[in-house]
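Fold these two proteins, one after the other.
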Amino acid sequence: MISQTLSTAENRLRRRARQYIDNQQLGAAQATLEALIQRVPEDTPARMDLARVLLWRDLPRAATTHLLQAVDRPPDEPAPLIQLTQQLLHCGEVVAARACLDHLARLPSPEASVLAAQAHLKWMVGEIPVARTWMDRAIAAGIDTPNEHHTQAMLYQFTGEVSRAEQMLETCLRRWPRFGTAVMSLANMRRQTRESNHLAFLSEQLQRMPANPSDPSGQLTRAQFEAAVFKELDDLGRFDEAWPALERSKAIMSTLNPYDASGEAAVIDALISQSESIIAGPDVAVTGADEPTPIFIVGMPRSGTTLLDRMLSSHSAVVSAGEINDFVRQLHWAADVAPGGIDAMLRVIRHSPKIDFAELGTRYLKQTQWRAEGHRFYIDKLPINVQMVPFIRRALPHAPLLHMVREPMEVCFSNFRAMFGDVSAYSNDMQAVARHYGQYARLTHQWHTTMPGAMLDVSYEALVRKPDVVLQRVLKHCGLEFEASCLRPERNAAPVATPSSAQVRESIHTRGLAQSQHYARHLEPLRLALAGSLQPARVQP
């Protein structure tokens, strides 16, 4: 251990730095840690502490430098190595994080908790089959918590073993019957039937819970159970019974996860005001023409992005990287702004005139091209990247952009009915959903106005009704030849780690059209709110 070989003076510096950190005296902590590293350059724990301080001080570039130097001398103990991997992922250094995970895998006699941590980190990176292997090992080694059993089930679902995943979740709930996360996953695992559903179990557990829990954990559990009841009743076509359960769930969630309408509007306003200056700079030269090229799929959540991803990645030249957030991570690094919600994004946008877009594009490719696995193209399917369109266009002008568009009422209802947990706060209230859609529509209208042709609109309705026609246009936009396999996404055996991972293993169907009509009376406030929202996203003919 480093600390065992440090001199008295160096240990004094370490203790002083820790005191400064505990007291949030970040400037003093930074100076003290820098002094320690100057004396002991190989002190990896000090570099990790300094990186944390630098991130708190909104200096991600400097933090990344120290983390990468720490990778040169990775810790040989699991806990700090796991911490280093997490810090690297937070800063967008995925390649270095994978190297740390390889080092962690070589450590002898790992405990069950270490195996589980490896599984979670592999999941975060997007290596789903490997994550499943590590979680199987962790369970076999004795880790026994509801969260780990749920994670194991989800990894089986993502890799296509839905029946096995369902059995795991049912076993989990027999032991921990009020584990709301598993209840939601079980309800969403498949389409429930009159002969096979969980309504009796859900009703029994809800009756045993407090009607109005006072603690946030209890409130979330009740919201999850109510959401599961809605999903199963909806599957059974019992729409009048389903709606009250959805209302109860959303009422709780809107309290737990309130929507920041003014913050979202500020981000959209800033993006629109800066968009022309972002795209007006000199062209970025495209290097490495023979290297893998990303295809971006953007749009509203629940707009059909996963279906398009599965169809495209059925092509022999394309693989899906899944929902990765690498672009926004690299954007934060390029702007030298630490990730941190709305305020951080506003600072990124303000700093955009100083961004080196060639450097941004190069960093993104460096951190993501390994995902191509030998294919010519790889898909980056993160719906929220619809906000990143001008940045993507400048940094990666050769990358195709596909914008999934769904009828406003349907996509808003699909968002409202979903349980997103602690993200997508707009989805918990009909007025908020309509307001969010209005901001999204403003933004995409701006992109079409200032960057005509930058992204290809793909209608969800047209895709499921005339998949061959729409797919031809999509493939042409991406520079790909038609392959019939793209019309059979249910045969795509690749892992898919999204909330709709079970549904997209079905053949293309039209069941998702006009779902809001079942709840037309209840959704009248949403319809009226949308009627007053801004111009909906334009769909190209």
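Now the second one:
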Amino acid sequence: MPRPLPLLVRPWRQRLPCAAVAALLLAGSVAPAWSQAAAPAPGTPPAPLRLPGLGESASDEFNLNQEKRIGEQIMREVRRDPAYLDDPLLLDYLQSLWAPLVRTARAQGDIDADTERLFPYESFLVRDRSVNAFALPGGYVGVHLGLIAITGTPDELASVLAHELAHVTRRHIARSVAASSRASTLGLAGMLLGLLVASRAANADMAQAAIMGGQAAMAQAQLNFSRDMEREADRNGLATMTGAGFAPAGMPAMFGRLDGASRLNDSGNYPYLRSHPLTVERIGEARQLVQAAGAASAPPPAPLLHLLMQARARALMDPSSQALRRLQDFDARATMTQLPLPDRLAGLYAAALASAALRDFDRADRAQQAASALLAASPLSGDAAARRMLDAQGVQLALARGDAAQAARLIDAGQLVDGSRSGLLLQADWALADGSVPVLRRSAEALQTWVTVQREDAAAWQALALAAGRLGQPLRAVRAEAEVQAALGNLGGAMDRLRAGQQLARRGGPGTDFIEASVIDARLRALQAQRRQLQADERKAGERPRGDAPE
């Protein structure tokens, strides 16, 4: 029986208690209408617009610690949502755009020491074909695959990320919540989760009906961003993306793309436009700022890597057989050879991925080989990033067919074990398929080093658990399984696994490790303390009379 295709959909994401989308969370009921601001001097990037400080109300009623707790609570649910997608290759690409924006915001002073210490500034993927992105409390930004699929250049995608980052760094959610002093911290988290569920309703009318009652409607009113907040997010975002090296023209280009696409056909597929309404003034001001800065009026052409990531997003955003077959059929289209070379490569890449998802591995291999040959014979053959992406998909296909030897050849030839997260997890999948002790041991050591820093990486912990089990290290495997559950927010499941580890350690036997047993004991105590704190917070919220402000 062929091995499941690795890295595409990790099997430990289960039990959907809420949706991973927050279009309504950031919905604005009033379209921005701005006064003209002073333009920057020619040749200089636009300066971030600074609104007045939050003041005592926001800092007292929705402080950083409360915002962090709400964000963590929401993300515990989001990570267990099947719509939450951990595709390492696509996530690496998103991170390559997100990380320089965060670094620039830090350098510009938008991220201070307190938020740097408390907020993770994490971007994540949502398997949804609608065009949307959203910010959550505590420094989290979600991106729908439909948004990646519609962007024409990395600069356009970076402009959306920079805008959402500005919502976080300027604490717009806190400002909105501070407008009402009647919601408890945990009560607010519950209302936000309700909005997340409503935002994934089948149509806009159903979603609107779901949020029209009581507290949810109040939360919606609190979280509507003001005109000034949207204006600030645009201007700060433009300054941040420019400072990070992206073409500022990407922002007006993205506005134009969204506006044109929604005019042709919205039908509920463009929630970003409902949560961030476009106006002629908004598009015009973005263009004026770009012109005043002396930047080019259009972003540079998209690199091949972005086109491949667009194709990957299209293949992953809709897992239905009908959608996958449409992408699969690209390799048989007579008009394929008439397309520009980058479009042909992207189409073949998506066709291979779609065929693999349909378990048609022979056809997937043919499309993959055609894409590799096309790249090798083209003027783009020196594009190392595109070559790596094709090689990485080749490894996935080889592992899905159970061909560990071919996967090893591609890993070595493509130098895929390069310190990236996707390379680490590709190595782990190959090690498990190969099964030899030296290969498993190298993979386990690399994974252990990674999770020491990236403690919330459920995928890496899961790979480590499997590798440790193969190596005859039961305590290490059980501890890693517990960390998977902890990273997914399932504290009860994590503690159950740690207790099982304690029992295993008491029985002794092969693979018993005193150091690992001590780590299990300490970790169990830490999780028990964490759960007691959460329970105390819930009791406090339940005992507070209705309408009382949080402490």
